Task: inverse folding
């Protein structure tokens, strides 16, 4: 038979451990939704690049903000504002996509070069034996 006192943390360390577990669970849940493979510790170390997930998040934010800005121009009234709004909604989204793809491409090249370096180092270690 359990009492209420057994369910409560015994000290501050238990409380902090509980908060860490909650944070880690929420972090993993969010990462799965965003399809991001990154741990909270990766934010503090430079062992893993976090730019790719950040670019994906920024892309979706931009994809929301650009059309909203275009609609704001359209509803301002004048003929020029309507043209600016339409061109922003169409051209802005395309330019934003190309910009994000270029950034992802640059970071992808960096990752591939790291893979090549690691493979060459591994190959050199095996040939020296």
Result:
């Amino acid at each position: 038979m359990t009492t209420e006192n057994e369910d409560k943390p015994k000290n501050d360390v238990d409380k902090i451990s509980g908060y860490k577990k909650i944070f880690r669970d929420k972090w993993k849940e969010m990462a799965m939704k965003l399809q991001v493979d990154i741990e909270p510790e990766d934010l503090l170390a430079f062992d893993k690049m976090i730019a790719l997930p950040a670019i994906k998040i920024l892309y979706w934010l931009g994809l929301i903000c650009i059309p909203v800005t275009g609609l704001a121009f359209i509803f301002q009234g004048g003929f020029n504002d309507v043209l600016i709004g339409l061109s922003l909604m169409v051209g802005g989204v395309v330019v934003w996509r190309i910009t994000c793809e270029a950034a992802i491409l640059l970071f992808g090249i960096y990752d591939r070069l790291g893979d090549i370096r690691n493979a060459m180092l591994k190959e050199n270690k095996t040939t020296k034996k």
